[in-house]
Amino acid sequence: MAQNPEDLAPLWRIPWTTEHGEARARELFHHTFGAAPTTFQSAPGRVTLIGDHTDYAGGLCLTTVLDHQTFVAARARDDARVRVVSAQGGLVEGPDHVWEGDLTALTHANGLGWARHVVGVLWALMERGFASRGMDIAIDSCVPIGAGLGSSASLQCAVALAVNDCWELLLDSPEGRSELAEAAIDAETRFVQVPTGGLDHYSIMQCERGQAVLLDFATRPPVLTQLPLYFPEYGLCLLVIDTSERRDLRDAHYAKRRASCEAAARQLGAPSLRDVFESPQWLRRVNQLRDPVVRARARHVVTELHRVRLITDELAGTGPAHERFVNAGKAMYRSHASLDVDFKVSTDALNLAVDSAFRVGALGARLVGAGFGGSAIALVRRTQVETTARLINAAFADRTLARPAFLTV
Ligand code: GLA
């Protein structure tokens, strides 16, 4: 069968402008609730540059945010009703889904479908003792869903910001945003029941677009260091390859990885793998773990922590730029190998994305986020973005894998 030339062209996910996103959320709100919203909030998706699967081990992560955002239009009510509509509801649950319930009945996520992410945030803020009010909430998003780009955290953070407005919580300062991030994390871990580590929510709440943030989870809240993104001024950018393979962190794999890391720390007599990493002969200690699976998982975490330090230093360094970016890129490839071989969270499609990026000369590439599907990133010259995407696209077509989509940061 002749191939349609359109199928060979890379599919680009273009971000909406803030005005466009707000207009869409306003329209959905008006169409559903027959009134005008009083607040608009948005929150981006996130990309991990390096440091995946370390946050829950007291680790370090270097992250940035996408231009793609979740948009929320909302309005406080005079009663205790909550109504939620999402333009993406159909993607998860079936068409035209409006969730409706009472604030007093928000006790568990069973049967809530996608609305659990929204309701969970209201629940978490009530748990923290904030005085609540009913709300109408409309959501629209251009963050690819389930693509390893923090779409659920982006939704939870945008909702937390809208609740902040509607309930007049005055949590607009950096400390206030950390409190909202913690509430959104509670929503995910205690309400939705995914034992996530916090890197998504803190990146989204604390990283400006076009910047990076180094998150240090040795303490809670983590210590945040705002950094430049470095790439644009050297003509480089991140190409995000969304493999179109979808995953759901509610399955047991993510929790199992976390449990293995906790077991490793316990067996080494340390509070966390971060403490092991900060001790002398950290790699030797980890390599002495008896259980091969626990050993491999722990090895990923400690070597990834080493790579976070290395990449952060290279990016901020003063040596020749080409050397620094080549070194950072190499560490990205090593990170991918570690996530594939030791942590076992890669897939054929993610490996193909990374291998193809290497073959066409990307400085570095790795899967991002939890893995088990989702996206990879490649560090490329801005002038090579189109060609790289085209060649990766062709490699996926050759292997008859689902068509990937691309975005840039
Ligand atoms: C998911 C989790 C995060 C983090 C990443 C992997 O995105 O939500 O807390 O563990 O996976 O780095």
Concise account of the structure shown:
This protein is α+β, with helices and mostly antiparallel strands. The chain contains 14 helices and twelve strands. The protein is globular, with a radius of gyration of 21 Å.
Structure description:
- This protein is 43% helix and 20% strand.
- It has 409 residues and is of the alpha+beta class.
- The strands form two sheets. Strands 2, 3, 4, 5, 6, 7 and 8 form a seven-stranded mixed beta sheet that branches. A five-stranded mixed beta sheet has the order 1-12-9-11-10.
- Helix 5 packs across helix 7 and helix 8 crosses helix 11.
- The radius of gyration is 21 Å and the shape is globular.
- The chain starts with a helix and ends with a strand.
- Alpha-D-galactopyranose binds next to helix 7.
Q: Strand fraction band?
A: 15-25%
Question: How helical, in percent, are the residues?
Answer: 40-55%
Number of domains: 2
Order of helices and strands: HEHEEEHEHEHHHEEEHHHHHHEEHE
- The CATH architecture of the largest domain would be 2-Layer Sandwich
CATH C-level name of the largest domain: Alpha Beta
Kindly, what is the distance between the CA atoms of the first and last residues, rounded to a whole number of angstroms? 36 Å
Which stretches are poorly predicted, pLDDT < 50 over at least 5 residues?
none
Q: Name the average pLDDT.
A: 93
- How many individual β-strands? 12
Number of contiguous helices:
14
Class by helix and strand content? Answer: alpha+beta
| Ligand list | alpha-D-galactopyranose
Mind describing the biggest β-sheet?
7 strands, mixed
- CATH third-tier fold name of the largest domain: Ribosomal Protein S5, domain 2
- What is the molecular shape? globular
Rg to the nearest angstrom?
21 Å
